[in-house]
Amino acid sequence: MRNKLVLVLTTLLMMLSSAYAQDTPNSCQARRIFDQAYNQVFGPEGATLRYDVNIIGIYKTNGTIWFKGKKRKFEDAKACSWNDGTTVYTYRKKKREVEIYSAADNKSDKHSRKFQFDPENFEYGVSEESDGLKITLKAKKGVKGIKEAHVLVTHKTYYPISVRIKLAFIWTTIKISDFQAGGIPDEMFRFPQEKFKNYKIVDKR
Known about the structure:
Helix content is 15%, strand content 44%. It is α+β, with helices and mostly antiparallel strands. The longest helix has 18 residues, at 25-42. It has two helices and twelve strands, in the order ααββββββββββββ. A twelve-stranded mixed β-sheet has the order 7-8-9-10-11-1-2-3-4-5-6-12, with helices on one face. It has helices at 2-14, 25-42, and strands at 47-55, 59-68, 71-76, 79-83, 87-92, 97-102, 122-129, 132-139, 146-153, 160-167, 170-181, 200-203. The chain is globular, with a radius of gyration of 17 Å.
């Protein structure tokens, strides 16, 4: 579930880079905002944010995630994961063990197929809200997977505030805080092997 939630967050944020131009001025504005918001999250200097996830009130969790190019790191109450772009190291706190995966074939992200995103499968729009700009993505008829998404960004900087996505009939809400664009060192994504010398290592590559 945890990897699924991180993947949901990453997928929705990456949507910001992929919106195609539409026919209306509103759709063109939505694309422009998406592009600028994407650059805030996935720029060359990286970004970090805290996420609070609520799946229709049944499941709640929170954590922090860092991005920089293909590199990722996340931490929550149950696990920490470092992805240096080549290898993924996931520390399971309860088991006190470290799992190792190939970044190119990360079997820990078994839910990834559910969140594949093709920008041509959606229609885009933007509306003014009291607390930001809401970008709406609606899947075209017959499209599977994500049916609808609402991405709220700040008025001036286009920093992400929240994301709501609909898969089938279930809505997932992700609130974003402590967002920082840039200033993320490469060292952040290095697995601190020296701290886990006495832990069980499970190599799943």
